[in-house]
Amino acid sequence: MEKYRILRDELVLEGIISSEKLFAADLISKELLILGHDEQYVDDVLNLKLDHSSARKVGLPLTQEMVNRARTSANAFTKAVDASLEDGFSASLAGGTHHAHFNEGEGFCFFNDFAINARRLGLLYPTKKILILDLDVHQGNGNSSILKNDLNTYIVSFHGEKNYPFRKIESHIDISFSEGAQDQEYLTQLEGKLTQLKAKCFDHIFYQAGVDTLKGDRFGSLHLTHDGLMQRDRLVFDFAINQDIPITVAMGGGYHRDITQTVIAYKNIFKVAKSVLG
Ligand SMILES: [Zn+2]
Hints:
Layout: H1 2-13, H2 30-36, H3 39-46, H4 52-58, H5 64-87, E1 89-91, H6 113-124, E2 130-134, H7 141-147, E3 153-160, E4 173-177, H8 183-197, E5 204-208, H9 226-242, E6 247-250, H10 259-277
Parallel strand pairs: 1-6, 2-3, 2-5, 3-4, 5-6
Helix pairs in contact: 1-10, 2-6, 5-6, 6-7, 8-9, 9-10
Bound molecules: zinc ion (ZN).
Zinc ion (ZN) binds near residues 138, 210 and 252.
């Protein structure tokens, strides 16, 4: 949790983001939560009544503080989506909770911010086509389980074959990498897929920019470098800007043995965004 506060402070201190560009999130409403989730599940979480084994699957304590944090994080992504509709680019300084399913949470995720917002945009703009580009090292099983059959959403996941979740849930495109995969292999695959995806003419991108692909991450198995991650982000932001597609970013995972490395990788996302998007 500490990394998020450090990230926010350093982004401002280092002049990567001016403080006027930051806005605070508040609690997402139940009405929005149930766009992506079963109402009984939402009630159980909000009322701290989730049964013990379901709570254990999330891996976080079911306390009021944790639930408020999950709701705030989902609201942050919601506000970021609206800001990117205005400005072309916005990011949540947390989020990317892609392991939460329709009626259960797992993998540190209670609520699925991408699923809620894909459904919300679908209601507001029925013709918009959303690309979910999930480059976290862990497959976005919750995104796939909730959204796979939604016609407005197309899901692409790049992940470590050996990494959690051990039972992947099929996306529209899944690219899995073996242990120790490095920059060149990864970037070649990404460039190829993005070239193919141009033909689909998306109207909005939700980008899960997890940095747990960095070599040395405790929960990842790939060996990407900081430079490789920056090239990754450059490819993604170029893809968005060249087609004039609004992009909303979530930080996703990052659990390096040295927290400084995770924060550097997150900050680099913003540095690259600034250099590409202005
Ligand atoms: Zn992850």
